[in-house]
Amino acid sequence: MDIDRNFARLRTQHVSLALSTADMCCLLVLRACEAETAALLERDVLDRLTSVHDQFPEADNPRKRATHGLQRLREQRLVTLVSLGGLAREGEYSLSGLGRAIVDFFVDDAKLTKENLKVLTATLGSQLTRVRDDARAASTAAHWEERVVVPITVASRSLLEGIERRTRGLDEDQETVRADIARLLTERWLEAMEQTQGLLEATTARLEELRDVILEEQKGLEAILDDIEGLAQAAGADRAERAVGELVSDLARLSGWAVKRHDEWSAYYQAMLQTLRSLVRLDPDRALTQRLRDSLQSWPDRPWTLDVAPRLRIRVLRPVEHVVDRPLVEREHRAEEEVERVPAASAVPLEALVLRAVDGGATTLTEVLRQVLPDVPEEARFRDAGRVAEILATRTHVQTALERPWVHVTEGLTVEDWRVEGRR
Questions:
Q1: Could you report the per-residue pLDDT of 94-153, keeping only the tens digit for each?
Q2: What residues contact 269, with CB distance under 8 A and at least 6 apart?
Q3: Helix (H) or strand (E) run with residue 397 in it
Q4: Could you give the CA distance from residue 406 to residue 98 in angstroms, rounded to a whole number?
Q5: Helix/strand/coil for 415
Q6: CATH number of the domain at 114-285, please?
Q7: Nearest CA-CA partner of 269 in 199, 211, 337
Q8: How far is CA 214 from CA 111, 247, 269, 395, in A?
Q9: Domain over 12-107 is classified CATH 2.130.10.10
């Protein structure tokens, strides 16, 4: 396709299309009439268009609107005057190829499935096999043109276009599935999780089957086309060789479509599942989602901003060399320390002093220490304070809170206080 030339032609001819719903219905009626006759007389066309415009409430004069509608369809090359008519004979009209394509696009609901794809590819394979047999027997240029070029450019391309038309229907079906998922999540939310996952898995499985079938059938079709191309090169049939090359490109585009659609839907499937699981886990009641939606809707009246601090990077102006200074391993020489000599305990056993203080009414560790430590030498008080705590823990009922206060006992001694509740 020469894009530059076609672009210039469309631009200079000011090509455009403007169709209303009534015009689309008129095209549909004319498309249905083609099953009965190849062309319609002008009065029959106007009668059918009048019945269409009569169905619209704004049609004050349906006949007049039908006349203007027919003229508008002719100007846009959707309806063709196939017979010029004359003074004694009226003209005949028929839909153009553009008109048929528009109607078929909107009313054709054919979807690409595993079953019809196998039928179409098998038909295409049989057609190409016959073309290869004719190419082997071709001896003249006319034979190559009639038995090879024409079947490839007409029959084979028509079958391939049938597959591509169904792929467009499948693309529309995917868009419908996405819309259904959005509607289910909006209406029922948690109840729609299972149904949503079912729609995702069904579409994924169907796309995977189509991809496998297309890739498998492509290998066999390309093998046949390679044989035809080799025969065309040997015979010098340039037109046949170009036709084979175009059909190979179409097959490659079809397989590319299958792989791309499968990969894109798989990515959408993973992203949707991750989103659903995150929303259900973090926002099961949709409270956060609803607040965010309300904030976005009220933004024109109450603007707000979201400030995000950028992640700064350390800019290094020159290479940094890490130099490690490893000092020599040596042991520090220290003088011998004098061992602290703690005097012996008093004549009265420490346990007896502790229990006597408890029996005397002491209710906390601090009260016991304040009664016991005066009978202990000053040098041994720090050591015996630990022994007092051990005796209380083993011989009495001790109650400690999670947060114990620090209480000053004597000079140089502060302890976490306990509560003592008598002997065991």
A1: 888 888 777 776 666 556 666 777 777 788 888 888 888 888 888 888 888 888 888 888
A2: 200, 201, 203, 204
A3: strand 396-399
A4: 94
A5: strand
A6: 1.20.58.590
A7: 199
A8: 15, 15, 22, 86
A9: no
Q: What string of H, E and C letters represents the secondary structure of 259-304?
A: HHHHHHHHHHHHHHHHHHHHHHHHCCCCHHHHHHHHHHHCCCCCCC
HEC readout, 303-347: CCCCCCCCCCCCCCCCCCCCCCCCCCCCCCCCCCCCCCCCCCCCC
Residue with tokens 């054709």: 108
Name every residue whose Cβ is closer than 8 Å to that of residue 201 and which is 6 or more positions away in sequence.
269
Q: Any idea where the domains of the chain sit in the sequence?
A: 12-107, 114-285, 350-423
pTM over 0.70: no
- Helices 157-187 and 238-282 cross at an angle (nearest 10°) of 10
Q: How far apart are CA 400 and CA 368, in angstroms?
A: 15
Mean pLDDT lowest among 236-240, 275-279, 342-346, 355-359? 342-346
Domains 12-107 and 114-285 share a fold: no
- The CA R_g of the chain, rounded to the nearest whole Å, is 46
The count of other CB atoms within 10 Å of the CB of residue 192 is 18
Predicted local distance difference test score (pLDDT) of residue 60: 73
CB 381 within 8 A of CB 410: yes
Cα–Cα distances (Å) from 255 to 3, 110, 205, 259, 279, in that order, read: 24, 19, 17, 6, 36
User: Is residue 296 over pLDDT 80?
Assistant: yes
Q: Two tokens at 316?
A: 């290094």
CA distance 162 to 250: 12
Strands (E) across 345-387 are located at: none
Q: Is residue 373 a contact partner of residue 381, using CB atoms and an 8 Å limit?
A: yes
- Range 132-136, long-range pairs (CB < 8 A, 24+ positions): 132/224, 132/227, 132/228, 132/231, 135/227, 135/228, 135/231, 135/232, 135/240, 136/231
pLDDT band at 347 (very low <50, low <70, confident <90, very high): very low
Distance CA 421, CA 399 (A): 8
DSSP state of 110: -
Asked if the model's pLDDT at residue 318 lies above 80, the reply is no
pLDDT of 336: 63
Q: Tens digit of pLDDT for each residue in 355-373?
A: 888 888 888 888 888 888 8
**Both structure tokens of 318:** 């020159």
Is residue 67 very low, low, confident or very high in pLDDT (cuts 50, 70, 90)?
Answer: confident
